């Protein structure tokens, strides 16, 4: 749905702003900078993992004895999850949040436009990742007539929301710096893969101990 929404929006923006749909979705690709995209993506992924681990340790939400997701998956599930977390989800999300939503910023000199769109993109990115939990908690709270369930859920999600917001701002800055989504996609994909293999948990244990 995210990918299709991004493509539809890109078609509309291409007509309004000029350029191609691909340039709206992906930005400008320079083959000579492929190593730069990969290295900057890896650096940002490492920084985001550290930030997440520090946040978890400070808020008491770290789970130092947690089992890495891949350890409870069979081969086919791991293959599907890798395809989803490294390719499908990051590309779709980057096309929308760092491609479409920042396309106009790359072509405008309006004062403050960059800050506004980066914040909009980042808040949208954060909301996208927690809205399901908030919606489910809201339905549950309404059915039981106990709205404290919703407020408790939102309160518990605040560390995650903060992390997603920081990630969104960082990825947006990387995308604007490179003028495309390739480095931000690399960062996003590496970060997701690290979570799948429990790297975040390893860092949390190092910090706690």
What does this structure look like?
The chain is globular. The chain is an all-alpha fold. It starts with a helix and ends with a helix. The chain has eight helices and no strands.
SSE map:
Elements lengths: L1 H16 L3 H6 L7 H26 L15 H29 L9 H32 L3 H31 L3 H15 L2 H10 L1
Helix pairs in contact: 1-4, 3-6, 3-7, 3-8, 4-5, 4-6, 4-7, 5-6, 6-7
Q: What proportion strand? A: under 5%
What's the SSE pattern?
A: HHHHHHHH
Most strands sheet: none
User: Helix tally?
Assistant: 8
Distance between the termini: 42 Å
Indicate the mean pLDDT: 92
**Which structural class do you get from the secondary structure elements?**
mainly alpha
The unreliable regions are none
Helix content: over 70%
Gross geometry? globular
Give the total of beta strands.
Answer: 0
Radius of gyration from CA coordinates: 18 Å
